[in-house]
Design goal:
By secondary structure, the chain is of the alpha+beta class. The chain folds into 2 domains: about 35 residues; about 100 residues, OB fold (Dihydrolipoamide Acetyltransferase, E2P), CATH 2.40.50. It is about 20% helix and about 25% strand. It has 1 helix and 7 strands. The protein has a 5-stranded mixed beta barrel. It is elongated and about 100 Å long. The protein starts with about 20 loop residues before the first helix and ends with a strand.
């Protein structure tokens, strides 16, 4: 059996893979890509603006959820201006601790432990107000152990 040395030669003439001008193709691609990205950014921003339902100063305007402990005086108001979402109110002296895992803090009110309001908040740092007489605006949450569990959105020092 004889093996012949076979060699393959490339066909002569223009190579179909390189016959398209690569400089022209990359500049078109870059230009089209740039235009696409600009349009995508503009549409993304417009979509985000519309989805937030931005209505100017109306709505859930967060004034500030963080306050320096030394700046807390009578009349200090911290949190959201949205009193439609945070429509429930309660007043008392803020103390640490919840009840059976519900709430991180509680308001001590006249009438004993049965009148306590247990509080949580993702907007306001309630730890800055411990020991202070405050009024809170919030949204009542369902609870198993607490008589009244509230998610606080706004705090005023009385």
């Amino acid at each position: 059996m004889e093996i012949k040395n076979m060699s393959f030669q490339k066909p002569s003439g223009p190579n179909p893979e390189t016959s398209v001008n690569s400089d022209n193709m990359s500049s078109i691609f870059t230009k089209n890509l740039f235009i696409f990205l600009v349009i995508a950014i503009i549409l993304g921003g417009a979509t985000g603006y519309l989805l937030t339902g931005n209505k100017g100063s109306v709505g859930n305007a967060l004034t500030s959820g963080v306050v320096n402990s030394s700046n807390i005086t009578k009349g200090t108001v911290v949190g959201s201006n949205d009193t439609t979402t945070f429509k429930d109110t309660a007043s008392g002296t803020l103390a640490n601790g919840g009840i059976d895992g519900e709430g991180q803090f509680h308001l001590v009110r006249p009438g004993g432990d049965s009148q306590n309001v247990y509080l949580v908040s993702s907007i306001v740092d309630l730890s800055k107000f411990v020991g202070k007489n405050i009024k809170v605006w919030g949204q009542t949450q369902s609870a198993q152990y607490a008589g009244w569990l509230m998610d606080v959105g706004r705090v005023e020092v009385l």
